[in-house]
Amino acid sequence: MLTKRGITLCLLSLMLAAYLVIALVISQDMAAEAPCTGVRISVSHNEMSQFVTPGDIDHELGGITATADSMTASGYNLRELEQRLGALSIIESVNCRRMSDDAIAIDVVPMVPVARVFDRSGSYYINRGGKHLQASARYQIDVPVIIADSDTLANAAEIIPLLQRIDENKIWSQLVSALKVDRNGDIFIVPSTGGHVVNIGDGSNIDNKMERLFAFYNQVLDVKGWNYYDTISVKFAHQVIGKIVPGRLRRNTIDTDGLEFEEEDIDIDIISQRDSVSVSDIKPKII
Questions:
Q1: Is 130 within 8 Å of 157 (Cβ atoms)?
Q2: pLDDT digits (tens, 9 = 90+) for 37-94
Q3: What does the alpha-carbon distance between residue 199 and residue 234 come to, in Å, rounded to a whole number?
Q4: pTM
């Protein structure tokens, strides 16, 4: 049985709970009606920052900073603002939020290009998410080049991580001047040394492929010369294949009399899998 003191405590608890509920409702109403104290736009610094200014963002949003004093802080649809700006090709990411002083903060990161693509439709920059930014005289960014032998770069999601791996390796990044993608989806490295291209197939197992390529460079091209082969393929596992275009005049100033290959060094099974290459076009593989 409750005592008089217990009943009093229960009543006080109920009154306190009712007060808190009423105070919460009132504070929410006050927050909803609180005037906006301003819109603050910031742009992160990167290579593209020179092409995106707070003024550009304000203009894109219809002069949002000038009309802030006529809005309540809760009157802005922050999700809609993010989607609107995020749809712009020049924007990498956007974060919109309401500050404690009832100001609206819009934080913008300009697009971060990781490569410039040249295909049959034109030229454009891409970021890590595959987003396109049409190239123009206004944008001049020093990034790796991808040449696609098609209307669009279909396997961008595969090539972008490959570009990152190449960029992380000092030796690889010095070797690779561009990547080329043929209609079959094979990826070719265009070396800065010139003279040949390297078919790596897809972007998988790149460490092993580059290890075989550099072994071929050290053991064969130091003897044959860097311009001897037209295409070097490390596409298939355990193989390095050098291809020569028939009839092309070879320019080789290195004495190759001491370099001999045995007939069994030529792997017919591997070569026959390359539809565009005949056995007669292939020089012996080096393992």
A1: yes
A2: 999 999 999 888 888 999 999 999 999 999 998 899 888 999 999 999 999 999 999 9
A3: 6
A4: 0.66
pLDDT-derived band at 1 (thresholds 50, 70, 90) equals low
d(CA 57, CA 52): 8
Spatial contact of 202 and 157, defined as CB atoms under 8 Å apart: no
Torsion of Cα atoms, 76 then 81 then 82 then 86, to 10°? 180
Q: What is the DSSP string of the chain?
A: ---HHHHHHHHHHHHHHHHHHHHHHHHHHHHHHPBP--EEEEE--STTGGG--HHHHHHHTTSTTTTGGGSBGGGS-HHHHHHHHHTSTTEEEEEEEE-TTS-EEEEEEE----EEEEETTEEEEE-TT--EEE--TT------EEEESSSS-TTHHHHHHHHHHHHH-HHHHHHEEEEEE-TT--EEEEETT-S-EEEEESSTTHHHHHHHHHHHIIIIIHHH-TTS-SEEE--STT--EEE--TTPPP---S--TT----GGGS-HHHHTT-TT--GGGEEPP--
Tell me the pairing of strands 91-98 and 104-110. Answer: antiparallel
- What is the β-pairing status of strands 197-201 and 231-233? parallel
> Residues in the chain, how many?
287
Separation CA 91–CA 100 (nearest Å)? 26
Q: What is the pLDDT of residues 136-188, one digit of tens each?
A: 888 788 888 898 887 667 667 778 888 888 888 888 888 888 999 988 889 99
| Closest C-alpha to 195, from 239, 238, 258, 253 | 253
Nearest to 178 by CA among 146, 202, 204, 203: 146
Q: Please, what are the domains in the chain?
A: 39-110 (3.10.20), 115-283 (3.40.50.11690)
